Amino acid sequence: MNLCKALKREDLISRKLDKSAINELAAEFGKYSVKEILKLLWDNDIPAAPINKIDELDKDPQLTARGFVKGKFLTPLIINGTRPVSNGKAPRKGEHTIEILRELDLGDDEISQLIKTNIISTQ
């Protein structure tokens, strides 16, 4: 309702289940730049955020406030006031398979047999 009022399209309020109304809303959005539409929506207490391109992430005020640094992984978690440190790379498939199996108390012979029979892969 607030969206339709902000866009001065109160005629769409009664058509909320009409799929063609979505096309009309899209046309209304097309009349504004991203900056203009965000201001209009925020001024009318309508939650909205831009969809950033990768090279624009360092300019996003929310990400900047959360400590985003271009080129580094940003975890949204903050535990006891501290953000966990990341080495920045996900492990490759099978990279830690042997270590995990050893933690599960499998012996080297058992692990070798699993690799030989293609039950597990380390690559």
Task: Write a compact overview of the structure shown.
This protein is mostly helical and 123 residues long. It has six helices and no strands.
Shape: elongated
- What is the number of strand segments? 0
SSE series: HHHHHH
Alpha-carbon distance between the two ends: 54 Å
List segments where confidence is low: pLDDT < 50 over at least 5 consecutive residues: none
Instruction: State the secondary-structure class.
Output: mainly alpha
Q: What is the makeup of the main sheet?
A: none
Tally the helices.
6
Q: Compute the CA-based radius of gyration.
A: 25 Å
Mean pLDDT: 86
- How large is the share of residues in beta strands? under 5%
- Helix proportion: 25-40%
Folded structure, characterized:
This protein is mostly helical. It has a domain at 2-43. The chain is 38% helix and 0% strand. It is built from 6 helices and no strands. The mean pLDDT is 86.
Sum up the structure in keywords:
123 residues, mainly alpha, 6 helices, elongated
What topology emerges from the helices and strands here?
Blueprint: H1 2-6, H2 19-29, H3 34-43, H4 61-65, H5 97-103, H6 108-116
